[in-house]
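S1.2 Input.
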Amino acid sequence: MARLQDGWGDERLTARDKGIPERAIGLTVDEFLATGPRLSEFWTPIIALDDAAMRHNLSVMAEWTSARGLQLMPHGKTTMAPALWQRQLDIGCPGITLATMGQVRTARTFGLDSVMLANAVVDARSLRWLAGELADPDFRFVSWADSLETVDAMERTLRETGVPRRVDVCVELGAEGGRTGARSVEAAIEIGRRIAASDVLRLAGVGGYEGALGHDRSDAALAAVRAYLADQLVVHEALGDLYDEGDVFVTAGGSAYFDLVAEVYAPAIARDSRTRFTLRSGAYIVHDDGFYRGISPLDETFPGTEAGGVFRSAMRGYARVVSHPEPALALLDGGKRDFPFDEGLPVVHGVAGDLGEALAPLAGASVTAMNDQHTFLRGADVAIGDVVALGLSHPCTAFDKWHFLPVVESAESDRVVELVRTFF
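S1.3 Output.
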């Protein structure tokens, strides 16, 4: 697989890039990094990534999936950062998953040549564009379909446009109350047969997303996820005679229940060597201190998880105290425009006099609310100008708020070794 193009190293930093130090303005990214920047130079609010923790997480997930006969095509929409996709590809991932055709088009500008679109393609404009991209014999692309109407829409445009080869399509199985996907095994099998009969589409397996069926580790949630994954295999077996010699996928796996995917898929993996049983987990590369920390099977809080094989949180927010209007209330200069909030409020890691300084604990302190540009900190003994370090929840809505994110060497260092560029 060709390396992704990394032209953002030549991109010039400007005052429009939130948090960038004043002295960096006008320099290219590479020129700035060559000066040995420190996190202490950046403006607050800021989110910093931890290089050592990301490398650790990548290694843990690669070893975990390999040991279970799974391949990993991580969901790139989590970060929309080609520099981080490259890290995932370098450690053995055979491709990247994306969510929209706009994201696929962006990824192609960087030379990404292996994409799973965990979604349907029905827009004639994007289908015409896709037909052109498939002229590249090295471009591997697979999308999903969950209805006969989806198949009809794809066929209509692809026949009118002309396509150099059939488009790989997985039938998507859903579940009642879930997200997209055929609502029954029988409906999914019918869709799969329809795809297999197409002159412009190719049946490439079974896809779906189990994460919509649960939000915790309750018995009911786990049972629903296991039943769904078992149904995926039923669909796959029913369509077995319709697959040709090309790639065939059975794919699931957000970042919450991938242990159940491995568990339920295990018997099929043992007897079926040609199918690519594929996880699409994306949040693992940075993990978090909130939602995924509470539900991931590779977090240190998960029962039975070995200490060396757990994810580490690799993203941290920093915000400055700008107001102390009441004895027990302080307001920070970062809010919903800067930090994720949809899957839980930030947690307090500590306080320092400024960015880059050692943190002191803030026992009893908590974040109780967030506005667009303020975070409400209660129970903290802090002074105006102090910087509060925040553990964040849900990386999927953290990266989209930033153009560049500084990467520090480790949690104990403020040496910036990279600027990760996002492309949302």
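S1.4 Remarks. Residues 298 and 310 are 5 Å apart (CA to CA).
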